[in-house]
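fold-stage: in
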Amino acid sequence: MKFDHAVIVVPELQGAMDNFRALGFEVQRGGANGPTHNALIYFRDGTYIELITPIRRSARIVFRGLYATGLLGFVAGRQAGIMTRFLMWFGAPAGLRDWCVRCASLDGTIEKLREQGVETTDAQSFSRKRPDGEVAKWRLAGPVDSRLPFLIEDITPTEIRVPFEDNCNHPNGVTGISAVVVHAGLDPPWLVLGNVSIRTVVGAYNPLALELSSRGDAKGPLARDKTFGAQITIT
């Protein structure tokens, strides 16, 4: 298994792309996936940050209203599998909402997790049509405990879903994600997935935070009014 991507839910896609470009990132439109669309910030090792939101503004308003009234959990609970998790993304405030781990065998990983007593959803298939017309296909599943990452297995070649080769030269010098910092819920409290360290801390962090490595001079936390509250630090 290896780290795949982090998910930042944003209120509006073009504005989010503008914000992250102003922070020095190369940002590419990813395409539409059902009622949502996304933009992607790629890194040389094939990992990325996903900016995602419902396409229709009315859908965003409905999700936020249901979340504010406490009804979204009920609605999400009536959905099949991994969709319960995703619906909760769009009701909660914008920001860094989730992270994903890539596995060679999704079914095998689910089986091993269940053997260890981790309750997981069944696998579901998804697809996204890129702006150039190419269609990426993959399967998702995940632990029911949303503090743990969800899981992805590519059906089409990973490079169709993650065409990073010509899209990862960031003006701010960032070369990749060096760490995901999780407030609680992992055992052991520190591990490495590919080039990304995963560690837990107690205290100052939100439920999730990212640390990015850079060859440039700009270091430190990114302005959270530009990242929609996501805690991201360049180290």
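fold-stage: in (second)
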Amino acid sequence: MELIRGLKSLKPKHRGSVASIGNFDGVHLGHLAVLAELKAKARELHLPATVVLFEPMPQEYFAPERAPIRLTRFGEKWPLLEAADVERVLCLHFDQALATLAPEEFIRRVLIQGLGVEHLTVGDDFRFGRERSGDFAMLQSVGGRQGFEVETTASFMLEGARVSSSRIRSLLMEGELEAAARLLGRPYGLSGHVIYGEKLGRTLGFPTANIALGRKQAPVSGIFVSRVHGVETRPLPGVSYVGVRPALGGTHPVLETYLPGYSREIYGRRLRVDLLHRLREDRHFDSLDALVAQMQKDVQAATAWHADHTS
């Protein structure tokens, strides 16, 4: 998959495409349905399937304090799009210049001159350009004159409701990991590099891999049964903590994972941790002895869960 960073990176070779524009936060089953249709159209027209993304997401630019918590950072979204066989991703830096660009100019510069779009798929509520004045009707009107098709995405329904990033986000925040996984089509996971921590877990008998998330917020918190990719050739069972560690004065979420029976050094490795089941909420303990006793129970519960769910 080719990543194109910004309008200035578009070359003549990128003209001619079938494209979709959106956040694709989570790359869930609804997104995968859109991408399947996109790829089918791309095969029909013998053109590359292209996804157009914005970084930061527009809501994060306009109102960062009210923007929804991301399901996936770009570094996590990228491999999911690649796994869905998207051929190109155009990542546009969302800044003042892009936010104030007239919608007609966006169409001309990005879709016509840049990508040479022959078929475009967007949501019927898609808004773009200065003051969000561009809409689906404008795209269809310009497409009719310029010779490219514009279609809307159909809602993907599961369990009687539309699959959406906001629905998945709510399930994760409620600790409903299994329900969220059904809508994602996979377990929800977080990824990052293993960094040096304070080694408190090691002193308590539970050495953990401390993974840098690069996030101000996470849609999950608590103690989880997990599955860890990137340590060995096969995924390893684990017990993971996601939270801000309030007792230590933390403000940003951290991910700490204990791998029972594993003792090798893994600093610097990039891991993906699938969160399979929430064991309990994060809570404060009055003593280290109480904390250790609870950690022992958590490991036992996670081991039992893995045994029950491994065929």
